[in-house]
Amino acid sequence: MSPTPVVHGIVLSGDEKDASLAERNTHATRVAGKGVDPEKKALFASVTKRIDYSPKLGTELHGIKLAQLTDQQAEELAAFISERGVVFFRDQDDLDNKEHVRLGRRWGPLHVHPFVPHNQQDPEIIVLDSRISPPTRFNTNDSWHSDVSFEPAPASYSILKFEEIPESGGNTIWSNGYELYDDLSQPIKTLLEGLTATHSSDIFKLLVQTSGRKTFGQLNDSVHPVIRTNPVTGWKSVFINPVFTREINGVTPAESKWILDYLGDLIVKKLQYQVRFNWEKNSVAIWDNRSNYHTGVPDFKPYHRRGVRVTVSGEIPYYDPNSGTQAKAWEATANAIIAKQEAAEKAKADAEANNSAKTA
Ligand SMILES: [Fe+2]
């Protein structure tokens, strides 16, 4: 007799009723966040504090209640997440399941995961509970990924909230796919811009075999461009990942392995591409899967954690050779910072010169 598919309100496995839930997944028909006010004044009117984790990736915003965003703020937030890669919020206790789903739906159709357990009432809410899925399936270096890239329309945004956190450990790390692209040499960029990769759900197929659990729908494989345009920022990024990318198409197996190993190594090892988030209870992270990677740090045993995630389906991935880059956009930001620093230094020198003249 098969084990019960529901434990503590979490549906662990498909049955006749919901064996085709994931078949309803579709792609976004509009790009949330595209064309908003570049200064995002409506959003920042509510922000009381901004902490950038690094110049190009990751920002923590204070003063925002995700359950209370206006439509305009939600649009501007989508754009801000696409620019910053990942955005963090604390104390989102009022973002309950209903509001969590409502927030995701503002940005696109919600994805139902074909294998990961979900909340009994809301199949769009997947449950990451270390009691049910211990973080031992992958080692850290192999677990870097963007969410559900095996789908024809992979995730745009993932909205993850932790309701229970370990006493210590259990951080999540993100790595910047825009910067990964920008730092490649031109010959390698040119090579990769002409390639596609097959992303597979092989890992879940294996888990189906080993666990005996049934899926909530088809486990897809999809072909996507290796260099992808983010439709919100218009910037290029590398779009492969160590968990779901099975092979680079149109090259030999050895060449495919070389390309994937090389890019995977950069994702894992380049510390300057990464930021690390220390979760608190009711913290929320929202990231843009189109242009960055993440991994959980499996260091928190014997503690436990329980998180809930809503995943928004994005567009069918595409590559536009005329796209911009984060590096180019960053030049303008960096120049403005330099001009501000120089003005401050000049003002300080002028003030010191004035003081000297007065005391002379
Ligand atoms: Fe993930």
TrEMBL record:
Pfam families for this protein: TauD
Keywords assigned: Dioxygenase, Iron, Metal-binding, Oxidoreductase
Keyword Hydrolase on entry: no
Key word Calcium present: no
SUPFAM superfamilies linked: Clavaminate synthase-like (SSF51197)
Ranges of residues in domain TauD/TfdA-like: 53-311
GO molecular function per UniProt: 2-oxoglutarate-dependent dioxygenase activity; metal ion binding
Domain of life per record: Eukaryota
InterPro entries tied to this protein: AtsK-like, TauD-like_sf, TauD/TfdA-like
GO cellular component, one term: cytoplasm
Assigned protein family: Belongs to the TfdA dioxygenase family.
Xref: PANTHER family: ALPHA-KETOGLUTARATE-DEPENDENT SULFONATE DIOXYGENASE, TAUD_TFDA-LIKE DOMAIN-CONTAINING PROTEIN
Protein name: TauD/TfdA-like domain-containing protein
